[in-house]
Structure formats: structure tokens, C-alpha cells
Amino acid sequence: MWAPTVIHGGFSAAEVEEIKRAVNIPVITVGRYTEPQFAELMVKEGRADLVAFGRQSLADPAMPKKAQEERLEDMTPCIACLQGCVANMYAGNPVCCLTNPFLGHEAEPLEKAEEPKKVMVIGGGVAGLSAAFIAKERGHEVTLYEAGDVLGGNMRLAAYPPGKGDITNMIRSYIHRCQKDGVKIVMNCEVTPELIKEEKPDSVIIATGSKTLILPIEGIDNPAIIHGSDLLDGKRAAGKKVLVVGGGMVGCETAAFLGEQEHDVTVIEFRDTVGADVIHEHRVYLMKDFEDYGIREITGAKVCKFYEDGVEYETADGVRHESRGYDSVILSMGFRNYNPLEEKIKDLVPETHVIGDAIRARRALDATKEAYEVASRI
Ligand SMILES: Cc1cc2nc3c(=O)[nH]c(=O)nc-3n(C[C@H](O)[C@H](O)[C@H](O)COP(=O)(O)OP(=O)(O)OC[C@H]3O[C@@H](n4cnc5c(N)ncnc54)[C@H](O)[C@@H]3O)c2cc1C
Ligand SMILES: Cc1cc2nc3c(=O)[nH]c(=O)nc-3n(C[C@H](O)[C@H](O)[C@H](O)COP(=O)(O)O)c2cc1C
Ligand code: SF4
Fold it and tell me: Residue 3, Cα to own-chain centre: how many angstroms?
């Protein structure tokens, strides 16, 4: 009913066309239509009479108007993550949207800042980007600093595994909105307390994200162990036979990424099941990838030692085992917040705010929600 990211837009077009041929009443189709061009084509070619936009209307209620005005680049896309809308609906909570943090706040439009402030946003991930455009749209003077040479933070890496490419549309739309609003973007600049002293901002928003979690396990710091984020980013390459240590969402998607490239992959996970934290609709397709690529699973396994070619692990019965003989070992046991500045700068500036993974490594939905909460009130 609500196709996940891996299912492409207009996936049911062929079936809709068959139905349209078989009946003589109007046919309305729905299903992951994000791009209005494709929906328009469906109608122009007579394959349907109307196209309905479900989640895209949550991600950007103004999309039809933007399409009419040929401003598609201004559109905020639905990335079919299901995190803010469907997950909340099932939980009995009001729906919100990962890409559109304004959803649910229609009755409280953004207020212009009473007093424009000089705002420094530190970090060009989705938290920093969204905080920057929201603060700018309220009239503040905003500069966003990114330590690296590319924007998007970890969500950029999230787009590499199979079927998740649409995430890049979110990053692109955020960068475009910052540029269009006139946010000053400074790349390759790691913000330090000295820079903050020089710049003398009125307000600092810390959105420095997270780093790979390094648990105190023997051998984990061996340089031969590849961090999953370095692998996805193309900074490190894996050999043919690979062990992915950690079978949560990121570990499983990294395994699928390697499987798609014909590596021989095994995932080892502490819990009794892999991908336990993956939203059901996404997990169905992720597990199909595991099947298609022959990815093996070792579950209920507590890793207690790393080797260059594998690990030693303990099962619930206290018995120790070894799984070795791999060409590469990939570390994917989670992330921890990276917030080296807050303590050092809190006495240097009138106000400091921390948002996103810099508080605690979680998901992008938390990052954009916190960006909205902070940037709409500073
Ligand atoms: C592989 C992977 C897959 C994921 N998949 C999903 C998913 O499908 N759905 C989901 O919701 N979440 C996913 N996540 C989590 C999601 O990416 C994060 O929750 C989100 O990126 C947090 O955004 P952020 O802006 O707070 O931090 P980040 O994305 O980490 O961005 C922080 C930025 O700050 C910069 N920075 C750090 N220090 C400084 C400094 N001193 N000066 C200037 N810049 C600095 C960094 O270079 C970085 O660009 C995934 C994460 C990973 C790693
Ligand atoms: C939060 C949410 C609630 C929905 N509630 C209903 C509903 O009550 N009845 C229904 O027939 N469809 C419901 N839908 C399904 C949508 O009408 C639509 O068919 C579906 O989201 C697929 O379209 P999309 O890919 O454009 O989102 C809901 C969808 C979402 C995201
Ligand atoms: S929460 Fe995700 S799936 Fe739901 S409307 Fe927003 S982007 Fe689309």
C-alpha cells in the first residue's frame, strides 16, 4: 500500500493501464508518484484519468503549484522512508515527515525573527542543512560550515545500498534550498573554538553528527578492520570474502551493497535476528537481497575478539567459536555522537544549540525534527 524506497515511482503503471482498458469509468492511480512529470505522462498517454499523490503531499503540499510554475527544483521529495508517516500512524501518534519537518505545524507558520542574529551552523549533514535554511528563512544571517568537501553527512552514505538512491533527492533539495535562500556555505572548514572567537556569532547550532562506535573489544582497532562508512564512501575497498560485524540496519544494508557487487558476504549479529531495527516494509526487500545474494547470517553471537581475517564470538551457552578465513572484516556495530565543541564554546557565545546525531546517533527523522525545533525559535 505504501511502497518503500526500493520500489520505483509508478511501479504499478502497467497494471493500471490494463484496468483502464477493461473499464469505462474513470481510473485514479496512486503509488510512489513523486515526480509530477511521470504522473502527467500517465494522464496524457491515457493510461489513467487522474494520479493521486499520497506521501508526496505530506513531503511537499505545494508540489502541484511548483510543477505548474515549472519550479521542480524547489520541490521537497518524499523518499518513501515510512519513518514519519506510516510508523507514527501505526503507533497512534500524529504523522510527521523526515524530509518535511514543517508537516504538522501548518497552524504555526514560521515567524520572522524579531532581531536578526548572526548564526553559525556547524555541520553540513541533513540536520545542519535544514537548520540553516529554516533560520535563514526567518531573517537570520546564516553561515553553514562543513569540515569535508561534500554536503549531506551520513545520509549521503545511506543512499549507496541497493534501492536507496532516492535519498540523494532529499540532500539535493536541501542544498538547493540553502543556496536559493542565500545561506553562506563554507566547505572544507572544520570549525574550532578559535574560529568561533573570531566570528563572534550570536547563536551557534552544533550539528556535527556521529562517528563509528568503537566498542572495547580486543583487536577492534586493528587498521585492517574496515569501518562500514569508509567502505560505503569508497575510501576503503573490501576483498572477495567479507565478514560484516553488526547486523543492524546499517550492517545489513552494507552487506546488501557488497552482495550486489558479487562479494561473498557473511553477517554476524548479537541479536537473534538480523535487521531487527529495519521498518517492516524495507526489511522485506532487504531480506530478499540477502536471499538473492546468498548472504549468510551468524546470529545470537557476541563478538569478543577481532582478527584481521575474522572474529571470535560467544553464544548464549557460553561456548566460544571462531569465524575466520575472510579477506576483509567490516565494522558496523553502530555510531556514537560526535560533539567536541559544545563544552569548549558554551562560554564564548550567547546561545549554543545541539541537534541531530551530535546529541545521540539516531535517524534522519530526529535530525530534521530537532533542526526545525531549534531554528524556528532562535
Ligand atoms: C550507512 C548509513 C545508513 C543510514 N541509513 C539511514 C536511513 O536509511 N534512514 C535514516 O533515517 N537514517 C539513516 N542513517 C542515519 C542518518 O544518516 C543520521 O541520523 C543523520 O545523517 C544525522 O544527521 P546529522 O546532520 O545530525 O549528522 P551527520 O549526517 O553525521 O552530519 C554531520 C556533518 O558535520 C560535519 N562536521 C563534523 N564536525 C565538524 C566541524 N567541527 N566543523 C564543520 N563540520 C563538521 C561532518 O563532516 C558531517 O558532514 C544512516 C547512517 C549511516 C551511516
Ligand atoms: C499516513 C498514511 C495514512 C494512510 N491512510 C489511509 C487510509 O486510511 N485509507 C486508505 O485507503 N489509504 C490510506 N493511505 C494510503 C494512501 O492513500 C496511498 O494509497 C499510499 O500512501 C500510496 O500512495 P503514495 O505512494 O503516493 O504515498 C495512507 C497513507 C499514509 C502515508
Ligand atoms: S516520512 Fe518518509 S515516507 Fe513519509 S512522507 Fe515523509 S519522506 Fe515520505
Answer: 17
